[in-house]
Write a structure and sequence with these properties.
By secondary structure, this protein is an alpha/beta fold. It has a domain of about 270 residues: Spore Coat Polysaccharide Biosynthesis Protein SpsA, Chain A (Alpha-Beta Complex). Helices cover about 60% and strands about 15% of the residues. An eight-stranded mixed β-sheet has the order 3-2-1-4-7-6-10-5, sandwiched between helices. Helix 4 packs across helix 8, helix 4 packs across helix 9 and helix 14 packs antiparallel against helix 15. The longest helix has about 45 residues. The protein is globular and about 85 Å long. It starts with a helix and ends with a helix.
């Protein structure tokens, strides 16, 4: 168990060192860092000269074709995202940022700041850091604010109310507490939105949606709110995220790598005036749609019809439901890369189990919502965004071909093949990591292995979850679970079919590779005619 004193020390670190402020270039790319990278590539080069090059041997054309074609396709897709991200970062967003800054400097302010926030058994130090950051935003804006707090326990409400009174007594801030009558974050959000609707939130009022463990960095209101005044077609935006892990060291590297990927992808998507998720950590919405019945209902009772699992409700993924509702309305969304905050992840217990559970939750949310987004068709959204949804489902299959091909090559050509494959992975993932380093605060060579592990594990988890969309678990929201339980014949059949389809999926990938590499020979039709008829 991590004690409160340790958490308090780490919260002080957050307030003293803002991770959204990039390190000076001379420090980030210091001579030591450059030497490490050059040494890494030198080792890869030496390994290439020592290990027999089985992968690119002319006799192994079938493997070269698959690895080469899939590799070129995926790397070109990465390059496309990178180019789009750079256009947004260097051309599009600076214009948005400068216009927003000019409007703010001219004296424009929002009429009111609304904050929709949910909390569930957060550590006191975390809740207090969240409230202090919110108060600073309200104080800078100099306008009235309302914090709409969704909670399930009196203790959470009292500690927030006490600290708000302590640090925000000089500000015009109203705390409205909405006690949920059913468990789950979705219910809490829906009750808040209904309370907002009754209070008469206007169609042009601006509302921050945020989690109770997200500490805002300075300037979120100043950077985000003017964008809505400048663009009447903008209905939602999402912010940048950082994470501070109080747990295994490798989880910090893993999540830093994932957030670097997120920054690249978000900027690429925003170039099409859409994003692929309106993150629940912190997003900002125009009031037009969020108080409408279809938006609220999809928050509290979103569901999916599935051929195997029937009709089931979503447990997590409220941010995906928000996104899907606005996507269906065809409204504009964007990403603000310099408005950010830090999530404090307190990991108690197994870090590996926590990471796998997170991947299951994220992958399940993507699969459940991605399918229906694809079904909207490219006419309801920019084609690039629609294709990104399609690509997410394709990539989980293609990612597995490379490692399965490595296994088949090792069986066919010996252990030297797997060694050559390891060198190939080491070199290519470092090249991709060089791109991600530009989106991270500091250069972390652990990105090389966390990138590959994340790609491989994520593909496996997605294929596993593809057949278990009704199975849901959310350990950091009171260990909630959803799915079908019991011993009925229908439940047993569903479980059996899910296991069968999972095994079939992995078996088909392996079988295709085995046949393609000629480790398994498929006889012609005439061969079977001879056997049967002589």
């Amino acid at each position: 168990m991590i004690r409160s004193a340790a958490i308090a020390r780490h919260l002080n670190d957050i307030e003293l060192v803002d991770p959204s402020i990039p390190l000076p270039r001379s420090q980030k790319w210091s001579p030591i860092v450059q030497i490490k990278i050059l040494t890494y590539f030198a080792i890869c080069f030496i390994a290439l000269t020592i290990v027999p090059n089985q992968i690119w041997d002319g006799e192994n054309n079938e493997i070269i074709y698959v690895v080469g074609i899939l590799g070129v396709w995926r790397y070109l897709w990465w390059a496309n995202h990178w180019a789009r991200a750079k256009i947004f970062e260097k051309i599009v967003y600076p214009n948005m940022r400068d216009r927003a800054a000019a409007l703010w400097e001219s004296g424009w302010r929002p009429r009111h700041i609304h904050v929709q926030m949910t909390t569930f058994r957060e550590h006191r130090e975390i809740s207090e850091a969240v409230i202090r950051a919110l108060v600073e935003e309200v104080r800078e804006a100099g306008v009235p604010a309302t914090i709409w707090l969704g909670s399930s326990e009196r203790e959470d409400e009292d500690k927030i109310a006490r600290h708000l009174k302590l640090v925000g007594s000089d500000c015009d801030i109203t705390l409205r507490i909405i006690r949920q009558n059913q468990p789950g974050k979705r219910v809490a959000i829906a009750l808040i939105l209904r309370a907002m609707s009754r209070a008469g939130i206007g169609k042009d009022d601006i509302v921050i949606f945020m989690d109770g463990d997200f500490v805002l960095h300075p300037g979120v209101v100043r950077k985000c709110f003017p964008l809505f005044a400048l663009d009447p077609d903008l209905h939602a935006l999402t912010t940048d995220e950082h994470v501070m892990v109080r747990g295994p060291w490798w989880m910090q590297s893993w999540l830093n790598m994932r957030f670097a990927q997120r920054r690249l992808a978000m900027q690429s998507h925003a170039l099409s005036n859409r994003v692929l998720t309106l993150t629940g950590r912190c997003s900002v919405f125009r009031g037009t749609h969020i108080v409408k019945e279809d938006f609220i209902r999809l928050q509290e009772a979103d569901y999916l019809h599935h051929w195997l699992w029937g009709t089931f409700r979503f447990l997590s993924g409220d941010d995906k439901s928000s996104w899907y509702t606005l996507l269906r309305h065809g409204v504009k969304m964007t990403y603000v890369p310099d408005a950010s905050g830090t999530t404090i992840e307190v990991v108690e217990g197994s870090g590996t189990r926590r990471m796998v559970e997170n991947l299951r939750r994220w992958s399940g949310n993507m699969l459940r919502n991605g399918y229906r987004a694809i079904m909207l068709g490219p006419r309801r959204m920019p084609f690039f965004i629609w294709w990104c949804c399609v690509d997410q489902r394709i990539a989980m299959w293609t990612m597995l071909f490379s490692p399965v091909m490595a296994i088949a090559g090792t069986i066919k050509f010996g252990s030297s093949f797997i060694l050559a494959y390891v060198v190939y992975i080491a070199a290519t993932r470092m090249m991709l990591s060089l791109v991600l380093f530009t989106y991270a605060r500091q250069v972390d060579l652990n990105f090389v292995w966390t990138l590959y592990a994340n790609q491989l594990l994520n593909a496996i988890v997605k294929i596993y979850m593809q057949w278990r969309l009704a199975k849901q678990k959310w350990t950091n929201r009171g260990n909630q679970k959803a799915g079908f339980s019991g011993g009925s014949l229908l439940t047993v059949f569903r479980e059996f079919m899910a296991a069968y389809l999972t095994a079939l999926s992995f078996a088909l990938i392996f079988l295709i590779v085995m046949i393609y590499t000629k480790l398994l020979t498929v006889q012609t039709f005439s061969f079977y005619q001879t056997i049967l008829f002589g």
